[in-house]
């Protein structure tokens, strides 16, 4: 299986805090009861059959925040399988609420680093990878911590099927420029934009995330990138 070892500068623990405000009783019950039932196994290879019992198109979301995009997509495509990773406990609770309220049997969660699950998936197994508003790490000296770096991208490329899609959204101008520069260096991804409109306008089937809504309220521009795995 491919790992992110090709770029030794990749920082594996890209995220910061794991929990924020204290969970209410109902939320704690979801973590105790529903989370174990929908969790990606902690060790060993992960594939369709182990997760869903059958072979199906797989989608993978890195840092799903509160899970609204993950839940929207899973609801839209009930025959597809969705894996969401998020180290932040309150975000995981948000996703659990969506899974319960929308009755989504096709979602699996990992509370932790997405790269840990990604490297355990079979190569060429994913139809979509989503990275929406990744932590920007705005200081130049922290640039190596950005998810858009060749180490994580090598892993994403290995796990996407040929023709599979990598979707990246950001409202951070530095991250936007950085991503365009890094993605432009890659021969294994084709940018699916023919004109500026394609990355300035929200594509269909790409719902607004909580973080994006917050950015819009602050008056930020949002950029939507779609890349096809060559
Ligand atoms: C700025 S928030 C955006 C959340 C969500 N995608 C949205 O658009 O509302 C970035 C998220 O990425 C998560 N994150 C950072 N590093 C991660 C990693 N290595 N694996 C999974 N999630 C990660 C953070 O915990 C955080 O919730």
Automatic annotation (TrEMBL):
Catalytic activity: guanosine(46) in tRNA + S-adenosyl-L-methionine = N(7)-methylguanosine(46) in tRNA + S-adenosyl-L-homocysteine
Gene: trmB
Binding site for substrate: 139, 171, 209-212
Official protein name in the record: tRNA (guanine-N(7)-)-methyltransferase
Family annotation (SUPFAM superfamilies): S-adenosyl-L-methionine-dependent methyltransferases
Pathway of action: tRNA modification; N(7)-methylguanine-tRNA biosynthesis
Organism: Allosphingosinicella humi
NCBIfam families noted in UniProt: tRNA (guanosine(46)-N7)-methyltransferase TrmB
Task of the protein: Catalyzes the formation of N(7)-methylguanine at position 46 (m7G46) in tRNA.
Residues holding S-adenosyl-L-methionine: 61, 86, 113, 135
Uppermost EC category: transferase
Domain of life: Bacteria
EC number: 2.1.1.33
Record lineage: Bacteria, Pseudomonadati, Pseudomonadota, Alphaproteobacteria, Sphingomonadales
